[in-house]
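Structure in, sequence out. Go:
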């Protein structure tokens, strides 16, 4: 049993009722995710599953002739759509096709239809030899002939087995044998064969199903099941070296592409320590000063943004205020500017915020966690270095620390980078409807947990590997702000790091479809973890943190 997005299902409905259901459920945010059509007499009957899934552009069609289907296939493929499922069938007019498509970037894929049993086997062998994995397979009857269609993808997956043309009598034996061998049925279709049927199947081995296989699995998988997390990845380090890196579940649940330690995930606000480190390197080199003002004539960002004249509070904001979240407003709450005005680019958003979100307090007097403040730090890095924020961070921080595979994530599913996870929102949260592309300096990086740790090694204060920052700079960066001091019960906040009284530094991050964490205690250990599901305001973040304290002890 597993939680997840709301879903609905229909079976045995007519083509007219199927179209009406697609339309009516679409108005409530549901879209079809699986489909099967079969013929009863001269009429096709539809069975389908809908999920309340947001953010992926999708297309569903049915009643297509072979030529219409091929034309649609060519058009949608050219536009970056990927075939999710296809169900050929027969009605009174002959062969027809029903299909569902999603638009997102991913590995190479291919699809074939209309194959005889021998043709399908040859295609199966060819795709396997090219390193493609069978994702969907369907057998269907046209007239008295059985035909086959398949979808393949060149991505990592669990060990798998497939069969087609399995007789009704042999199917149960195959099912029992594969189940005993630890395989799980992930795709099945039946085709009429005279008075009987033949079956097409895909089976996969899912090691995570054995909770007792090791301590980490026994801890991580129940969490994934509770929160409907498709993929989970973590890395643990001891004394400046990675001791364990593991991944569980799926980087893309649509195609069962498994998560690996090499998959990059959005790390959300774990980006802030990366930005802070970049700024502190520039401080060390004399290119910035903590007392530098941010806005106004002669200030770091001058009068580039917003309408003049600036308020006294805006003109009083300094670099240190941005680093410590003490600028006096622009808080991470329901009115967080970074989630407003989604049609604006980054520069237009900064101007809009300065004009429409006045600071509530004098700078330096209160602590208000601010994504927008770190967005401004990214613009300051650009102004000082003459390079983009991303290039600056890679050159000064990530490449030198060995974490150069990290990248700035795109906002939409078609922007998905190679070896990047697909994100799933909880309770209608929409990972691909937020402007991650303009969140660079406060929440835009995507990385593996191992690369997050490699970054951490460069600022952890341990003798090996050498830190990028001088000891005094690192100490200043990780010392609690006077506006957010450490107490016995409340963590403090320094400059891009949460801190406590026992020399633990950390940061977590939450976005729709993302949960992340980086922790470096004082005992020489460190860990980072990410998953591709999440929603701000839930208990997932707290449980995620507690889980990793247990995992790091178990590995």
């Amino acid at each position: 049993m597993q939680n997840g997005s709301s879903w609905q299902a229909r079976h045995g409905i007519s083509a007219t009722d199927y179209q009406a259901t697609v339309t009516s459920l679409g108005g409530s945010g549901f879209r079809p995710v699986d489909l099967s059509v079969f013929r009863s007499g001269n009429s096709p009957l539809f069975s389908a599953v809908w999920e309340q899934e947001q953010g992926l552009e999708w297309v569903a069609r049915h009643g297509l002739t072979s030529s219409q289907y091929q034309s649609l296939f060519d058009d949608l493929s050219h536009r970056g759509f990927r075939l999710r499922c296809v169900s050929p069938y027969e009605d009174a007019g002959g062969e027809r096709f029903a299909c569902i498509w999603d638009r997102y970037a991913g590995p190479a894929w291919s699809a074939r239809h209309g194959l005889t049993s021998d043709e399908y086997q040859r295609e199966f062998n060819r795709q396997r030899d090219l390193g493609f994995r069978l994702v969907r397979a369907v057998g269907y009857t046209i007239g008295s002939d059985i035909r086959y269609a398949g979808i393949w993808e060149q991505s990592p997956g669990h060990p798998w087995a497939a069969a087609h043309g399995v007789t009704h009598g042999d199917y149960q034996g195959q099912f029992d044998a594969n189940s005993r061998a630890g395989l799980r049925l992930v795709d099945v279709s039946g085709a009429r064969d005279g008075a009987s049927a033949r079956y097409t199947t895909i089976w996969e081995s899912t090691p995570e199903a054995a909770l007792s296989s090791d301590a980490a699995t026994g801890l991580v998988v129940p969490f994934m099941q509770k929160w409907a997390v498709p993929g989970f990845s973590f890395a643990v380090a001891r004394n400046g070296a990675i001791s364990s890196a593991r991944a569980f579940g799926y980087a893309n649940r649509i195609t069962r592409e498994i998560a690996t330690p090499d998959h990059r995930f959005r790390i959300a606000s774990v980006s802030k320590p990366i930005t802070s480190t970049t700024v502190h390197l520039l401080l060390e080199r004399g290119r910035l000063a903590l007392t530098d003002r941010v806005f106004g004539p002669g200030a770091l960002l001058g009068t580039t943004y917003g309408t003049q004249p600036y308020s006294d509070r805006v003109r009083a904001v300094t670099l240190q205020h941005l680093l410590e979240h003490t600028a006096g407003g622009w808080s991470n709450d329901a009115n967080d500017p970074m989630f407003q005005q989604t049609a604006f680019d980054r520069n237009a958003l900064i101007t809009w915020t300065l004009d429409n979100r006045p600071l509530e307090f004098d700078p330096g007097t209160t602590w208000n966690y601010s994504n927008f403040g770190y967005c401004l730090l990214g613009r300051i890095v650009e102004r000082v270095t003459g390079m983009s924020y991303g290039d600056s961070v890679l050159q000064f921080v990530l490449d030198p620390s060995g974490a150069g595979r990290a990248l700035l994530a795109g906002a939409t599913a078609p922007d998905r980078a190679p070896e990047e996870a697909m994100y799933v929102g909880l309770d209608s949260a929409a990972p691909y409807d937020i402007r991650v592309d303009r969140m660079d300096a406060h929440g835009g990086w995507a990385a593996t947990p191992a690369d997050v740790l490699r970054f951490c090694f460069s600022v952890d204060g341990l003798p090996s590997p050498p830190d990028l920052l001088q000891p005094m700079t690192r100490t200043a960066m990780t010392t609690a702000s006077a506006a957010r001091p450490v107490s016995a019960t409340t963590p403090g906040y320094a400059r891009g790091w949460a801190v406590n009284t026992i020399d633990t530094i950390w940061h977590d991050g939450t976005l729709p479809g993302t949960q992340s964490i980086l922790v470096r205690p004082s005992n020489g250990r460190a860990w980072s973890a990410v998953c591709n599901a999440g929603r701000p305001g839930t208990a997932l973040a707290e449980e995620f943190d507690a889980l990793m304290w247990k995992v790091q002890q178990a590995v």
